[in-house]
Amino acid sequence: MKLLVVGGAGYIGSHMVKMLVNSGHDVTILDNLSTGFRELAKYGELVVGDLADESLLEDLFSKHQFDGAMHFAAASLVGESMTNPAKYYRNNVSNTINLLDAMVKHNVKSFVFSSSAAVYGEPNSDLIDEEHIKDPINPYGSTKLMIERILQDYASAYGLNSISLRYFNACGADPEGELGECHDPETHLIPLILQAASGRRESITVFGRDYATDDGTCVRDYIHIDDLCTAHALAFDKLIGSNDCGALSYNLGNSSGFSVQQVIDVVQTVVSKDGCSVTVEDGERRAGDPATLVADAAKAKSELNWQPKYDDLEVIVSHAWAWEKRLANID
């Protein structure tokens, strides 16, 4: 198949492109490199450009007979979305509509969308399934939910089939060590702790130890990047195999959680083998941090035939540490 991967030079997108190319697909990457990295676009053909450029999209879709598209190119910092919502509505909503319109015009019917658990807002249960109330508490989550609703309308009106995949906490790195996470600024827990271990930051802060969890720290569901990409590949297979599946959505997670302290403990175990350690500081709770966020991913497992391989936190951390050592020049 011939696929367009938007945001294919970013963390998740670059891993996805590698998997697709290694599976025999022909991939074109569209990325404006605002948060992606040219050096991560090791596979496929990189086109540097933006979804805001409608003429570029027209050229791409006229030149290539795409069988489908995957979209990873959202602005994704929750805090920034609160202070600069215009950026998020413009990039995440308006620009995505440009992509969808190009697909409709050129009769490309299969679309896999990178959504988020942020569509749910504050959880009313520890285990969140797809029927959980959707009430985002920040503009980032609102933009993801808006696109999901737009996809429902595009399915009804134009026959555009789509699958939205709601991530919980993507983590880890390419098991072969070729790709990994390098956000700037970094906001994800595991790479932040690993940076404290490698010396690229001084310490890691635990925001609150008085939550209603076993050890008092927040519990989150972590999903390995390789498992995440496998789910996307299976979603695309489902779209290609059905002419009228409409707009579907699935949670992606391991359906089990680890606390912040558990993650720190596992990192300490992994990095100690290289003579490294992590300095931990305690801070106050952050507003809007629920005690527990864990996915019920039964629907994805049943309907996509998806089964995560990397549910062992030490394996996840080991893959991420191998990548961090490379970035920090640790032998």
Note down, in words, how this protein is organized:
- The chain is of the alpha/beta class and 331 residues long.
- The protein has two domains: 2-170 and 224-252, Rossmann fold (3-Layer(aba) Sandwich), CATH 3.40.50; 171-220 and 255-328, UDP-galactose 4-epimerase, domain 1 (Alpha-Beta Complex), CATH 3.90.25.10.
- It is built from ten helices and 15 strands.
- The protein has helices spanning 11-22, 54-63, 78-83, 85-105, 139-158, 189-198, 225-240, 260-272, 298-303, 313-328; strands spanning 2-6, 26-31, 45-48, 68-71, 110-116, 127-128, 161-167, 169-171, 204-207, 219-220, 222-224, 247-252, 258-259, 280-283, 292-295.
- β1, α1 (11-22) and β2 (26-31) form a beta-alpha-beta unit.
- The longest helix is centred in the N-terminal third of the chain and has 21 residues, at 85-105.
- The chain starts with a strand and ends with a helix.
- The mean pLDDT is 95.
